[in-house]
Amino acid sequence: MNKKKMPRAIVPGAATHPADETGLGGKREAAMAADSNGSMEPEDRRAAAAKLVERFSLWSGAAGLIPLPLIDLAAVSGVQIQMLRRISQIYGVPFSDNQGKALVASLAGSIIPASSGIGAASILKGVPIVGMAVSAFAMPVLSAGATYAIGMAFVEHFATGGTLLDFNPQDYRDFIKSQRELWKKRS
User: Considering all CA atoms of the chain, what is the largest pairwise distance in Å, rounded to the nearest integer?
Assistant: First the structure.
């Protein structure tokens, strides 16, 4: 009797890294995230986090292309939560899903023009032909820009020794505006 080899995902005791399961991470970032004992240089940590934010911004833009209203918003939010989890790993900050969701929602709310634009672009997908065409251009750009601003705000916060518990979105309002302007120049 021949035994079939089981996929790694269901082999008992097979170790997998959360980044590998999502397809959003690589071996280099996984190694950096595992190095949360402080031996990584602050510049290297910031560079790895910034690269991660840029990649998740692109994923967020791709999630904005989902043609179903409100489903795209849920996908973008999921990408942002995963990004925050990974940034927390890089900086060795304990992460909680509930805290992460609340912080991303409050930070997205503090950048009202972008977040209301994302919601409007998502709802616009419900309008036949014209709405779909307009939102196909607007939603990915708005999603990617908001994700970039949120990610860089958390990188800045964690780089200065902050945690999820002491994050105050009002403190980063000006920083987010500057990141939004930087993103506009890059696009």
Answer: 67
In Å, what is the CA distance from 57 to each residue of 83, 103, 175?
A: 9, 17, 17
Whose structure tokens read 């009002």?
170
Q: Which two tokens stand for residue 42?
A: 């602050």
Nearest CA to 152 out of 175, 186, 181 is that of 175
Q: Where in the chain are the domains?
A: 42-186
Inter-residue contact 90 to 33 (CB < 8 Å): yes
HSE-up of residue 60 (Cα within 13 Å, Cβ side): 29
pLDDT (tens place) for every residue of the chain, 187 residues total = 555 565 554 444 444 444 444 444 444 444 444 444 456 788 999 999 999 999 999 999 999 888 877 788 888 889 999 999 999 999 999 988 888 888 887 776 655 444 455 656 666 666 667 666 777 777 888 888 888 888 998 999 999 998 888 888 777 777 777 776 776 676 5
